[in-house]
């Protein structure tokens, strides 16, 4: 249903909110460059490009680019075209970098992709592939909350107003028949918008009864004594929902399709390698996290976080459409026109070459 008039006035602000993400990904806002793997002798440039700038978040839900960077998959696919990296802390900064041309291809969550596409009138980006599903949980204080019905009347954190987890929690609350004002977070449940950096400390202090958050924040709360009350994946068909997409600027896609195809091939190759080498891949991802942020995840956080993520080349387009509808129903977003947000042509070309089935855009692909 459409947003109210009052909410319409806030849409410009809401559209700029980060994902999830990661708000799963919300550890600051400044990007930084990283060193690249060595370029093989005799390699040739792709599309005549000196470099391709790849953006991602320093988070386990971005395992594919973490491992591809650490193990050199991107550089191998790009030949003598240098793979450069920018590590982001929030969705809006990555969308801004994509719009400015300082990033060509990026890994990002569904909310920033939807918001960025809608805000530009469908002119700035395309989703060209999938990367990860799952990794979002409702973790609670087991002394205060014994069952799902006990969530009513409690203080539960989400990463940010309007982000992917916030929308999911508001939608779940509505399905219980409870009422919450989306803007203030007040009602039958108090929704506390809390940065993932501080949520574990707030939980430890007792000011929160729980949180609906992505990994690794969920596992950090469990390490503090919290209990997983609900895994969001159980609410979705086949227990799959998009948490990380691959996006590209429309200009770069049009001008450099061979480079885009090379990066997609590297992504598919990386996911295959991770599946075949899970322990080595987990170590590689954590090593890249340490390189990017200066701090690796401890085993009691890394291990359960890694187990909850499902890598996928499929962007799970139908679930992105559903997530957008949840934001509309919550009154946080006007009905967006998502037609054309996907272009899976190059991904399906890569998958076909590997003998894998094509993936679907849920009717939201370019015509």
TrEMBL record:
<keyword id="KW-0449">Lipoprotein</keyword>
<dbReference type="Pfam" id="PF13379">
    <property type="entry name" value="NMT1_2"/>
</dbReference>
<keyword id="KW-0997">Cell inner membrane</keyword>
<dbReference type="GO" id="GO:0042626">
    <property type="term" value="F:ATPase-coupled transmembrane transporter activity"/>
</dbReference>
<keyword id="KW-1003">Cell membrane</keyword>
<keyword id="KW-0813">Transport</keyword>
<keyword id="KW-0472">Membrane</keyword>
<dbReference type="GO" id="GO:0005886">
    <property type="term" value="C:plasma membrane"/>
</dbReference>
<protein>
    <submittedName>
        <fullName>Lipoprotein</fullName>
    </submittedName>
</protein>
<dbReference type="GO" id="GO:0042597">
    <property type="term" value="C:periplasmic space"/>
</dbReference>
<dbReference type="InterPro" id="IPR044527">
    <property type="entry name" value="NrtA/CpmA_ABC-bd_dom"/>
</dbReference>
<keyword id="KW-0732">Signal</keyword>
<dbReference type="InterPro" id="IPR010067">
    <property type="entry name" value="ABC_SsuA_sub-bd"/>
</dbReference>
<feature type="signal peptide">
    <location>
        <begin position="1"/>
        <end position="31"/>
    </location>
</feature>
<dbReference type="GO" id="GO:0009970">
    <property type="term" value="P:cellular response to sulfate starvation"/>
</dbReference>
<comment type="similarity">
    <text>Belongs to the bacterial solute-binding protein SsuA/TauA family.</text>
</comment>
